[in-house]
Amino acid sequence: MRKILIFTGLLIAMTSYCNAQEVGIRFGDVTGGNVAIDAVFSLGEFTRVHADVSFGDGLGIDALWDFMYRPLGDEAFKWYAGVGPYMLIGNDFKLGAMGELGLEYRFNGVPLAIGADWRPYLEIIDNTSMGFDNFGLNIRWVF
Known about the structure:
The chain has about 140 residues and is mostly beta strands. It contains 1 helix and 10 strands; from the N terminus they run αββββββββββ.
């Protein structure tokens, strides 16, 4: 429990230092539960880090680098694809890689972004397995 509290404190400190551009909630399949704190950190015009922290079956952490982030027709409607590590710290320890493919819409005049994505994964540590059934809905406040 002490390790989880220390790690959570470090994560909160890093989040406040990095100045997330979007913060919200992710509903659906996330590492360690069904609801997560969802944040997006911009790295440039077409790249970003999409991170989730969940507290369900343990502490779940996803950190995905979205390497393609392009508009579809209207500037408010975009798609993205990415890849990155995930980890679950709890009764079971899990570590693996996860992909991401999603669509996002930013409302004009309202600082709100809504997105839906699909996240296939490859679990490497604890068991070796693959999953293709992780879908989620993201609702974030845009700063």
